[in-house]
């Protein structure tokens, strides 16, 4: 879900690949907090910059990582809250031609999360 949130533009870029125990995650959390405060101060809301194209990008990312159905439920809920018409058919239409680029499940001691974060790499 972290990568999908990043593709949707709801978190600071680069956060999705940081492991939980990495100190850079705390730095990113502070950056995200500063961004939220700035957005509130300028009355900038998700509804002003999330579009159907934003959700299409998130669906492509979800399909490319073989993401979970949990992300589908979240994207449908977020889109509904923003008044964007997103349906299960959109996931089929947009995601069906996207190749799976990474397998987020552990296979042979390697996972997407550990293979993308140098500090946590293990041999695959």
Write the layout of secondary structure elements.
Elements: H1 2-8, H2 23-41, H3 46-49, H4 52-64, H5 69-82, H6 88-95, H7 112-116
Give a concise summary:
This protein has 124 residues and is an all-alpha fold.
Low-confidence stretches: 119-124
Rounded Rg:
16 Å
End-to-end separation: 23 Å
Structural class given helices, strands, pairing?
mainly alpha
Q: Please give the number of β-strands.
A: 0
Strand/helix succession: HHHHHHH
Amount of beta strand: under 5%
Number of helices: 7
- Compute the average pLDDT: 84
Give the biggest beta sheet: none
> How would you describe the shape?
flat
Helix content: 55-70%
Describe this structure in words.
The protein is mainly alpha-helical and 124 residues long. Helix content is 56%, strand content 0%. It contains 7 helices and no strands. The protein has helices spanning 2-8, 23-41, 46-49, 52-64, 69-82, 88-95, 112-116. The relative contact order is 0.16.
Keywords for this entry:
56% helix, disordered C terminus, mainly alpha, 124 residues, 7 helices
């Amino acid at each position: 879900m972290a990568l999908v949130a990043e593709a949707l533009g709801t978190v600071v870029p680069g956060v999705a690949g940081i492991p939980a125990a990495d100190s850079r995650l705390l730095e990113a959390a502070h950056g995200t907090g500063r961004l939220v405060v700035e957005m509130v101060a300028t009355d900038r809301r998700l509804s002003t910059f999330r579009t159907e194209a934003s959700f299409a990008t998130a669906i492509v990312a979800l399909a490319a990582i073989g993401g979970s159905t949990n992300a589908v439920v979240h994207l449908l809920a977020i889109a509904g809250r923003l008044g964007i018409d997103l349906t299960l058919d959109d996931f089929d239409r947009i995601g069906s031609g996207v190749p799976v680029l990474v397998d987020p499940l552990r296979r042979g001691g390697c996972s997407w999360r550990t293979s993308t974060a140098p500090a946590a790499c293990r041999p695959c």
